[in-house]
Amino acid sequence: MNKHFCCPQCGNLRGLFPDYCEFCGSLETPFAQTSYIKVDLEKGMPTVEEAISYFQQYLFRSEELGVRALLVLHGYGSSGEGGRIRRRFRELLESNEWANRIDEFVYGETAHHLKSLKLSATLKKELEKERFSSNPGCTLLLLKHIDLHF
Length: 150
Ligand SMILES: [Zn+2]
Prior knowledge:
Blueprint: E1 5-6, E2 13-14, E3 31-32, E4 36-40, H1 48-64, E5 69-73, H2 80-94, E6 102-107, H3 121-129, E7 138-143
Parallel strand pairs: 4-5
Antiparallel strand pairs: 1-2, 1-3, 5-7, 6-7
Helix pairs in contact: 1-2
Zinc ion binds next to loops.
């Protein structure tokens, strides 16, 4: 996993997991140095249930660490486990399963023009690199902004 978070204690870079720093053991919330996290739901060929539970771990942890966006790769297979993961994931999304955490979601295939989406310039640039636009194998989630001061 890419190490996109900085430990406030020792300054080493860490990933989203584990929830402690592997260098100094600090449990302090690391600083995010990225505007989005990529989650591959097909990695390791999981079952649909495993993939959804894996996604939720990422969603909850990303929210905790103040990440703005999740780029979910679920594949676009029309049959087999890959197709089922995509269908189930989008079903849950559309039935507002995670509505208290997710502000907005954009399917790759409907995102023809990143310009029309309300995203930061940095995030747009990153998504261009990821070839998100017009890609039916992924979904972009924008997480709710949590104000930690209240
Ligand atoms: Zn540390």
